Amino acid sequence: MIDPVLERWRLLLGESGGACLGGQQLGAQAAARDAAMDWLYGRDDDLRKRGVRRSGPREGGTGVSVLTTVDWLDDITRLFPKETVERLHRDAVERYEIHDVVTDPAVLERIEPNPALLKAVLRTKHLMNPQVLRLARRIVETVVRQLTDKLATEVRTAFSGTKARRPGRLRQARNFDVTRTMRANLGRYQPDTGKVVIETPYFFTRTRRHLEQWQVILLVDQSGSMVDSVIHSAVTAACLWGLPGVRTHLVAFDTEVVDLTADVDDPVELLMKVQLGGGTDIARATAYGADLVDQPRRAIVVLISDFYEGGDPHRLVRIVRDLVEQGTKVLGLAALDEQANPDYDRELAQRMANVGAHVGAMTPGELASFVAEHVGR
């Protein structure tokens, strides 16, 4: 019997790692996995240039017919765990641009929706005819619903903290005001025991305060590199929509500016309207967002972009400075997704920070907490 560890190394290395098996052949399931990975990674031109082969040379003959994309999808679903399948999907559509993974009706009817496929649909929907687009919409709806359910819980948790903490008489442990109690009783500190004797405990009442209306204006760069942030911006806007004290706007931009606020309560419809790619005029989009502000001191402008400006960077910095000086909170996010791993123009981001913008990267939950913190004041 082949050592499972050696077998995994053979699968990882391809034919080049055959020596690690000591002349033994792969088992039936491992051989099927090897064939499925070779169908995808065997087309890697970089490996070919370096003389590395995942499997033997492809030749004509009377052997087994070449796998179709549908066959391959069926095979990987049967052979690999879900996490591996999602990675294979992602590599197929992003690394090797096998577009029929999301444009072939036969494939779309059986494929299991996941975030990698959602991104692929958004990138390729302009290639789809109406029939294929209807099938692809299933992927968008399923993944968006999963993301919304998860984020909605985080948003509710963040906004549950927007309650007044006034002194109260109801003595419950959850209402115990530790800070005020310690401050009032510090005079009874006992050095020998290291303890404070509490003579008068204090409590607060957790009654929801009246929330004055705040504007949250999300300006989202829809260039191709920002697809994760576009998805999470749509979902975040939908979760903020209708919350007490919050009025949400969502604006997408490249060199043009498109106000998508009318669809903010339907992130699926919104994402189907987004057109990824094109240039970037961040200053123009920021100027549009500035014009939407009604009450400067009750507005949060969230600019989600990689800050690679194709327009006028001096104008952008000037608009951000004017917003900050009028009392508006400006948040520049280089990424808004679950990983919050930013790739951005640090020089321009620093210039924005120098005039008062908060600049960084956030997960959607962290953005919700930031909004809740300011709305609840």
From TrEMBL:
<protein>
    <recommendedName>
        <fullName>VWFA domain-containing protein</fullName>
    </recommendedName>
</protein>
<feature type="domain" description="VWFA">
    <location>
        <begin position="213"/>
        <end position="372"/>
    </location>
</feature>
<dbReference type="Pfam" id="PF05762">
    <property type="entry name" value="VWA_CoxE"/>
</dbReference>
<dbReference type="InterPro" id="IPR036465">
    <property type="entry name" value="vWFA_dom_sf"/>
</dbReference>
<dbReference type="InterPro" id="IPR050458">
    <property type="entry name" value="LolB"/>
</dbReference>
<dbReference type="InterPro" id="IPR008912">
    <property type="entry name" value="Uncharacterised_CoxE"/>
</dbReference>
<dbReference type="InterPro" id="IPR002035">
    <property type="entry name" value="VWF_A"/>
</dbReference>
